[in-house]
Design goal:
With about 110 residues, this protein is an alpha/beta fold. Helix content is about 15%, strand content about 30%. The strands form three sheets. A four-stranded parallel sheet has the order 1-4-7-10, with no helix packed on it. It has a three-stranded parallel sheet with strand order 2-5-8, with no helix packed on it.
């Protein structure tokens, strides 16, 4: 029974560590992206409007789809991040913010 309890605890921890936040596209208004909610999967163009801020904390993983699911923006084949407000990326040498393609595992 003890090993079953440990296995269930480890299973619970692994599910917490593998959270995923889908961003289908559109406006990102005053958000903070944190490692615990990642990876953040961007499927279509996102815009940070004037007067808004997107803050990405150290250690966060952002995965970008290979194609633009919205087929919009200047390039209908690639996801675009349009910054009209503020984009703050707080990566460090020991905890970088990672931008990868969807097919890449950091």
């Amino acid at each position: 029974m003890r090993s079953l309890g440990v296995a269930l605890i480890l299973l619970g921890l692994s599910s917490l560590a593998s959270a995923e936040t889908i961003k289908p596209g559109g406006n990102v208004i005053n958000e903070t992206w944190i490692p615990a909610d990642g990876p953040y999967v961007i499927q279509g163009d996102i815009t940070i409007p004037a007067g808004s801020t997107l803050t990405i904390q150290a250690g966060t993983v952002v995965r970008i789809e290979d194609g633009d699911m919205q087929a919009a923006g200047d390039d209908m084949n690639h996801v675009e991040i349009v910054v009209k407000g503020q984009l703050i990326v707080n990566g460090t040498a020991s905890q970088p913010v990672q931008f990868t393609s969807q097919g890449t595992t950091p």
